[in-house]
Write a structure and sequence with these properties.
binds 4'-phosphopantetheine, 5-stranded parallel sheet
Length: 162
Amino acid sequence: MYRCAVYPGSFDPPTMGHLSLVERGLFLFDKIVVAVARNSAKAPLFSVEERVDMLRESLAAYPPERVEVDSFEGLLVNYARQKNASALLRGLRATADFEYEFQMAMVNRHLEAGIQSVFLMTDYRWLYISSTIVKEAASYRADVSEMVPPPVVERLKKKFAV
Ligand code: PNS
């Protein structure tokens, strides 16, 4: 049976942790739709279009039938239904992620019982990184080139150039 998962997030910006999760998810799913949320409450550093572009460039090695990059507005479960996805994919790092992820998974299950939340762990190398930490480090012009893919390094340099 053909299985598609939506991997939603803010991706502001995408990190090596996100890419690792896509790679792992492809062991389980035929297709992964990486979906940038348009209505995230946080004030983003990058526009949705910039985030979609960075993800597309960073994931260009995968064929389009296996990885798609898109954006969505409104409820995640509605979008996942539209995409005929059977699962929502999310990454777990430390225990700090658990409560928020647990809450989201329960709400999403309440809204759509037919779509399962699936959690995978990122590579241990990326356990400590987050988009927030990367942005903070880059704002002080720290070298973040091992934490994010090259298209993101370039964009961060431009954002924080004096
Ligand atoms: O990377 P993030 O910021 O942790 O991603 C959070 C995201 C985008 C997955 C979440 O906020 C979301 O699903 N937003 C869409 C609206 C929605 O369906 N919310 C959950 C049920 S109220």
